[in-house]
Write a structure and sequence with these properties.
Layout: E1 2-7, E2 26-27, H1 35-50, H2 56-59, H3 63-69, E3 78-89, E4 97-100, E5 106-109, E6 112-118, E7 120-123, E8 138-141, E9 150-152, E10 156-158, H4 159-165, E11 176-177, H5 179-182, E12 183-193, E13 200-213, E14 221-231, H6 243-250, E15 255-260, E16 265-272, E17 287-291, E18 315-317, E19 322-324, E20 327-329, E21 336-338, E22 342-344, E23 350-352, E24 375-379
Length: 380
């Protein structure tokens, strides 16, 4: 079942950096939100619609619900199988198109932003060495003579253009959806308030960075988040109920309201048709794997041995790691504790293999139930 989540207010998605009143005066916001944020918002929404006579806390006391979506300590049969940005034209609200972070092996020529190139595995020159664990004999490179002119491709790609970059297709005609088209950053000032007197508290002036999605008249598209949720079959964890069964089991309406991110900002959700999706298996002898969402690996950048032979890539194109944690709520209150902070391989990372390989499950050591490590296959 696919949900399109359309924010109605400015959003706050906190980073992993601590923000304590009186000690820090600036709270950053990250975009897009992490799998932790989106899964929490969706599961809370399911609980809020589970029984109209119960609040969320009471709903989570129902074993029928916790069997389906878990509780504070697990995820039950709940699975996130897709997570991305999304857009639709204002004159075609029924057609939602997914948007993805560009693969890290795609570069643009600095002097010509419409000219895109692929980085492909290239053997080290004689005498060159690597300090990577287990050693690595290849590195991503291009045929461009002056690689200093190559810059990362910033923005987002439509699903159709993403497929072109993951194959051997020509890269002309690919359009990048710019960050400024999707959202704007808005700084907001605030000040701490004394609980008793309600007066401002000295030394507690702070600033937060909010995210406002672009819904102005001059923009032709509406932007939001697309989340695919499924329920594992009671008899087999590797098979799923269909979309209609999933929606019926979860008591979720076709459309409704929810809260998302810090400060519990409102958003509107609706159930939209689930396209078949693209995880086309490569027909060529050489496969590349693209991470559509962040992944956690115990071994660092390289997939763990449990994913053999995926733990032995020829080389990889990976941007800077992303620190992702979260907050584990205490039942019945706003108290809780920090979740473990992981250094994640970021979305957009690409792994190259000199043979045909298949990702049969999300490529991550942790969080595969909630959308970490969602992987697409391609070829080079």
């Amino acid at each position: 079942m696919r949900l399109f989540i359309e924010p109605g207010e400015p959003l706050l998605f906190r980073t992993g950096r601590p923000f304590d009143a009186g000690q820090n005066n600036f709270a950053e916001s990250m975009f897009p939100p992490t799998p932790e944020t989106l899964q929490g918002a969706v599961r809370a929404t399911i609980a809020s619609y589970w029984d109209p006579k119960k609040n969320i806390a009471a709903a989570f006391d129902d074993p029928k619900l916790t069997t389906l979506i878990g509780d504070y300590n697990g995820y039950g049969r709940f699975r996130v199988t897709g997570m991305s940005l999304g857009q639709y034209r204002k004159d075609q609200p029924e057609t939602v198109e997914r948007l993805f972070i560009p693969p890290a092996h795609i570069r643009r020529v600095d002097t010509d932003h419409d000219h895109l190139l692929r980085l492909l595995p290239k053997p080290f020159e004689a005498g060159a060495q690597s300090n990577m664990s287990k050693g690595i004999q290849y590195y991503p490179a291009s045929e461009q003579k002056n690689e200093d002119d190559l810059k990362p491709l910033e923005g987002w790609l439509t699903e159709a253009d993403l497929y072109k970059t993951l194959g051997v297709h020509d890269l002309t005609g690919i359009k990048v959806v710019r960050r400024s088209d999707i959202y704007q950053e808005e700084p907001r000032l605030g000040i701490g308030i004394q609980p008793g007197t309600k007066a401002s508290q000295e030394g507690f002036l702070y600033q937060i960075l909010m995210i406002r999605m672009n819904h102005q008249m001059e923009h032709s598209h509406i932007y939001g988040f697309v989340v695919d949720i499924r329920l594992a079959s009671p008899s087999a964890d590797t098979t799923y109920l269909n979309d209609q069964q999933t929606q019926q089991e979860l008591h979720l309406p076709d459309t409704g309201w929810m809260t998302i991110g810090g400060e519990q900002r409102t958003a509107h959700f609706r159930v939209v048709p689930s396209a078949s999706g693209h995880n086309k298996q490569s027909s060529q002898a050489r496969t590349l794997l693209y991470l559509a969402t962040p992944a956690v690996f115990e071994t660092g950048w390289r997939p763990s041995p449990q994913f053999a032979p995926l733990d032995a890539p020829l080389t990889a194109a990976i941007n800077r790691y992303e620190s992702i944690g979260g907050w584990k709520l205490q039942a019945g209150s706003a108290k809780g504790e920090n979740k473990t902070m992981y250094r994640c391989v970021p979305a957009g990372s690409v792994y190259f293999f000199d043979k045909h390989v298949t990702a049969k499950q999300p490529l991550t050591d942790s969080g595969m139930e909630i959308g970490y490590g969602i992987t697409f296959e391609g070829e080079w």
